[in-house]
Sequence to fold (578 residues):
Amino acid sequence: MKIKGGINKELAEIFNKIADYLRSQKVEFKPHAYQRVAISISSLEKEVSRIYKEEGLKGLMEIPGVGENIALKIEEYIKTGKVSDYEKIGKKIPPGVFEIAKIEGIGLKRAQILYKKLKIKDMNSLEKAAKKGLIAPLFGFGGKTEKNILEGIAFFKTRKDKISIAEAFLIAERIKKELLSLKEVEEISEAGSLRRRKESIGDIDIIIASKSPKKVMDFFVSLPGITKIWGKGKTKSSIQLKEGIDVDLRVVSKENYGSALLYFTGSKEHNIKIRKIAISKGLKLNEYGIYKGKKRLGGKTEKEIYSILGLSCLPPELREDKGEIEEKKIPNLLELKDIKGDLHCHSLWNGGQNKIEEIAKTAIERGYEYIGISDHTKFLKIERGLDEKQLIEQRKEIDKINVQLKGRITLLQGCECNILNDGSVDIQEKELRKLDYVIAGVHSNLKMSRDEMTKRIITAMKNPNIDIISHPTGRLINLREEYRIDFEKILKIAKETGTILEINGSPYRLDLKDIYIRRAKSIGVKMIIGSDAHEKSQTRFMEFGVFQARRGWAEEKDIINSFSLNKFLKLLKRNNQN
DNA sequence: GCCGTTTTCGGCCCGACTGTTTTCAGTCG
Fold:
């Protein structure tokens, strides 16, 4: 069973599947151990093969959650490309059955029942069976489950072969770095949907300015990790990477770089519109430049072209033909460097991977002025959510670290408490009041009716002790739809109550999505970007939140963690009541 | 299978809810 992706991701997926399998066999404790290792390996910065090469088995065992047994399995995979225990499972369960188990409402146990009873071994055979109504009569299944299965399959079909912005961004950074090592490369940039920072990316486009296209192309098609060369020419080459994504490279002359970048960044709709403007001015715009008759007026930079067309230079994130061309006042978009703190971080206290002190030090390295610890609370047993007593204990620790780090950073204590079915939360109000800020989010019973879920969130927003709503729509990209909510109503109440909506930067969520951010901004609802880091390196998810905010036309003034600590605190509901 | 400022062995992964059941699987991160 071969899985696409870098070695850490491959192993994480194998360990996750072993965990799923053991859980379906009712094995105790081991699934948790495997799952933990899967999480910790996938958040490693270094490839396990490198750790093994440099430090051997001992190095592997220093990875959190890895003991002797799992270290040996990692070693086996590095040496042979296989984990024999996992191969044994593969003989019992076809890979398609694991896929089926990803559908909401189906776990590996039910998938195995379907395999045994109806010989269902992939999505296709599952869909056929559900449509024929063969599933509902099975013991333990029913009409609603069958309906859920069909909805789940439909959702899976819409996601196509796209990868997340986070994954595409990191791959592109790596490739750009390699290409930049060539002295023949004069300019380089990503283009396409990646440059526009869309949340999912079909393929990666890269544009290079160079006088020696052949050298650049030869180097490009010899990069490590290529599984297929679709085509190689003087100006355009296309490859497939082992991560399962295609990369297209175009090499142009420096004179054409701006026009090529503009053309290949898109969007198509944006390009059509600016070409029409060119025509209306008696000009012609293409990927080689901007022309009046045969005379070339420019094309070296994007700015030059926009200026000839009488437009301001539009940031790529806005180029969707959603009003940016007509807009008189182009927003001065938020930038990563504007961010002064991260208020959504989980610590070791609730099952995160790092001590508060380590998170604080990472925040100092990131240049933040403040950092907030917002651990889950007690309703989420599986996350070891904190109760009132533990919050009081945690405060003591935070106070102590604040003294140690005085002058370097300020730590705040918050929590991410749970909005229960009736809109109340799982921590007593008087304890919430003692915190510096409170985030509340929905983490359970996600399939409520639209009215009930809207009411549930609104009740929480009306609570004077709740400052921020985390991941307000609850979607997981490619995995789970939003809660059914009346978002307009939620915006209205957010504005009235001064509740802040989060833009969750985790690549799995990116919630709020771009159109909601733009809508919130237009109404004047304040937002905050949180990394939702469960491991210190994940604080970099802030950047993906900033991308998302930029696509939503957000400026510094719309995002409250771009404010200095004092201004930020003054904006919180708790500090703003008469 | 991992882990140790109580431990090198005995803890760890709990509970409320939904759908479909009459005991259970799956979902929330």
The first strand of chain A starts at residue 163 and ends at 164. The first helix of chain A runs from residue 7 to 24. Chain A is about 45% helix and 15% strand.
